[in-house]
Fold:
Amino acid sequence: MKRLIALSIITILGSSFAFAQEHNPIKVNQVGYYPNQEKTAAVEKSAEAKKYTLTDANGKVVWKGKGTRKAVSHWSDKEREIVDFSSVTTPGEYTLTAGKLTQKVIIKAKALEDVAIAGMKAFYLQRTGEPILEQYAGKYARPAAHPDTCVYVHPAAATEARPAGFKLSSPGGWYDAGDFNKYIVNSAFSHGIMFAAYEMNPEYFNAMKLNIPESNNSTPDFLDENLVNLKWMLTMQDPNDGGLYHKLTTPNFEGFVMPATCKQQRYVTQKTTSAALDFAAIMAKASRIYGKFAEYKEFAAQALKQAEFAYKWAEKNPNVYYDQFGNNKKYQPQVNTGEYGDRRFDDEWFWASTELFLATQNMNYLQDVQKYTPKQFTIPTWGQVSGLGAYAWIAAGLKDDKAKMVLDMTGNELTKFADELLATVPTSCYNTPYGNVENNFHWGCLAESCCGQAIEMLYVYRITGNKKYLTAAIENADYVLGRNATGYCYVTGFGQTPTMHPHQRLSAADGIDDPLPGFLAGGPNPGQQDKNASLPEYPSNYPDESYLDHDGSYASNEIAINWNASLVALMGWLEAEVGPL
Structure:
């Protein structure tokens, strides 16, 4: 069995891990609190005390006080008490005591930097088609696999120029999630949310050191790692018509084996409107970001050219959705891997036309922006990307009359959305905007809802300058890192009680006790779509406790590049905002 591991990893993956405690009824951010920001704990009723104390490493009491309020679960009769020790600002390791129980508390500058770096370094560990080397990955080194230099066109994707069985080369990139396939839609979103944070904090992300093979060149590690997958995406466009293959996949998911042992043939599947538009959006955005560096000029020009080609394909094919079920009725081999299915494309049109206008200033794209501008803000996910378009407008900050309508809408909508979330904190279970309604808990909720909310709060903080939004973003980070109903720190390799058994073939099959570090688990999911006789029972059916740290639990414990992208965007932005202070 994999053992629980301690505290944080260092950026080179070189630290050793200590053993952890059982789940502690005193729930805290297990990684670290910023010295001059809010610091709260949530204490379960079993550990409630009349007074709480915080002692330093020498046993000196530096704070004592009572709980600030009761926090009653929205789904059960469970009670917690919120304890606020924000007045303690000196960095150090402390002990929070409640009666006979204690919990470790860390206060430090750059409190979340290790998580931000490890979350980004995790993408290197997901690379395909190249060896993962010991000098960069330590004990997680592995041989090259899935070169993807001989991939077949699936019958559902056949054209006259590229008939079924046509061989093409589509190497590189990242494995998408716990499986070994690669998907255009999810890749585009993953880059999109990271680049959104990058555009607001370029100095921080450009300075990020990852210890990857490209670290000794003259360009930022953050951009170099993203480039690995962007270059793969370029190979997924049909050069004959501009369409994008939806995914590169085996017919069926591989077993829990290392990638070098996999034998299934790999295919590119049906072209779709969503893939074309998402590709157009991210390549247009990449052309602007990478075009600022002389070393990336050639890539930037190619990215923009292929983005406009993809957009033209979408204009000719505006309603082509990925129909795996229908394809399997007509074609062999049947494909049963992840769908990333989507049948509504207004959000993709908005994001793609936004990024292409910002890259080219072509007024035809602005007309499409105005046509598809959403009426309300939605947190971005792979299946709803209009929010990425909103974020792009805020980063651009254009003030001309033609852009002002869109910019005003996005700014006003974001503030309204954030205020609605903030209104829930005084009655929240864990002193967070996240986790106070049942629909906050679902497949991938820690990224799509928890991190997503926090990133949105950071945009509003930049727009308004009001620190309450920054505090709210930090509160959601605290939730991910341990101040939550289960007591898990949901990032592998971090905290006293981290996720240890992610649904990830690489971690499950490598023979190493510790999982690959820096990966965000999907999180509590009351849908429990993976529930079956081969899995242990979920410990609870309550929405915020419906989490199973087991490598078979794909519904609550898988990892995915889009989830890690949200983790990197949030933790990196917080470090840029608060870490240096």
Remarks:
- The mean pLDDT is 94.
